[in-house]
Design brief:
Length: 325
């Protein structure tokens, strides 16, 4: 009598879902990646730090949301210059992070990875690329010009115990400015989009022009639509009737750019500290959407393991397809 094929039991040393996932990836996927030179066509193999997770608890006092956290997700903010990315981070952290610069002109010209530390630290990109414990160490593939535009800012803010945030340079409009970057901005975003847990695309309600580089960035996010949240920022600066038209125009424009059946929901928001004092008919709607955005962020760690499994499964499928080619 033939015995059915027996599957080996997991190694007793493997404890927890992330450890099991990491072990399966190293045993089943990495050998194929190396054999078929997959990293030459996509991102380098996943690192140990990308599987790290730990149970924590967070209370967002502002909205009284109790959450059981099981990991530390990363949020990526994208948008054209002066759209309000850094202001949104300051709103979430109840204050500016060290080195933050807010103004009407292009102010943020670096990738700032904002994370938690008891003591304030600023770490250069060159140093980060040399740190084997840094979860995005593989960014060194983009060269020294990019690494000079990367830094980690770590300081004591309660929310940063449970998430980290990546602030990005404002996306420019002129071809000359884009060429002068010295690195491939869109490819950096593609790399980060495959690693982070949530991507916020910010648009300014007062200037809805979407530059060619921003269109390219949005298109390169294909495959990460489930991570994308869209915010129409500075909504308190326009009249309600105008906002309806602006929101409709934004959804129509995104429908032509994004290759997905449905455009993600568009939240309206305002993240500067004095907007709630303005006498506007939109106040309640803005408060409701801002609260929804905060709740989306607070809920990220609840699906941390699921997203890691999905990301590894997606990569394994791509490696398999690549091997056939």
């Amino acid at each position: 009598m033939c015995k059915p094929d027996e599957k080996p039991l997991p190694d007793p040393a493997i404890v927890g879902a992330m450890e099991a996932l990491k072990s399966a990836y190293e045993r089943k996927v990495i050998p194929s990646e190396k054999r078929y030179l997959y990293s030459e066509f996509d991102t380098p193999p996943l690192r140990d730090q990308e599987f790290m997770a730990k149970p924590t608890i967070l209370l967002l006092a502002q909205y009284s949301v109790g959450i059981n956290f099981r990991g530390k997700p990363t949020i990526l903010l994208l948008g054209q210059y002066s759209v309000g990315k850094t202001s949104m981070i300051s709103y979430l952290l109840n204050g500016n992070y060290p080195g933050a610069d807010i103004g009407p002109e292009p102010t943020t010209d670096i990738f700032a990875h904002v994370d938690y530390s008891e003591k304030t630290q600023t770490i250069s990109g060159i140093t980060l690329a040399s740190d084997p414990n840094y979860q995005f160490q593989s960014l060194n593939i983009f060269g020294d010009v990019f690494l000079n535009k990367l830094r980690a800012t770590r300081f004591n803010a309660p929310l940063l115990k449970y998430i980290s945030i990546i602030d990005t340079p404002g996306i420019l409009t002129g071809d000359k400015q884009v060429e002068n970057r010295g690195y491939d901005f869109a490819q950096v975003i593609k790399f980060l989009s495959s690693k982070v847990d949530c991507i916020f695309l910010l648009f300014d309600a007062n200037k809805l022009d979407i530059s060619d580089e921003y269109k390219q960035v949005i298109q390169i996010l294909e495959g990460s639509e489930d991570k994308i949240k869209i915010i129409l920022n500075k909504a308190d600066w326009v009249r309600p009737r105008e906002l309806v038209h602006v929101r409709g125009a934004l959804m129509w424009a995104l429908g032509k750019i994004m290759r997905c059946p449905e455009v993600p929901k568009v939240f309206i928001g305002s993240f500067w500290p004095y907007w709630s004092n303005k006498n506007t008919l939109l106040r309640d709607a803005i408060k409701e959407d801002v609260a929804a955005v905060v709740n989306e962020i607070a809920d990220l760690p609840n699906s941390y393991h699921r997203r890691r499994v999905n990301d590894v499964a997606k990569r394994a499928r791509n490696v398999r397809i690549h091997s056939y080619v």
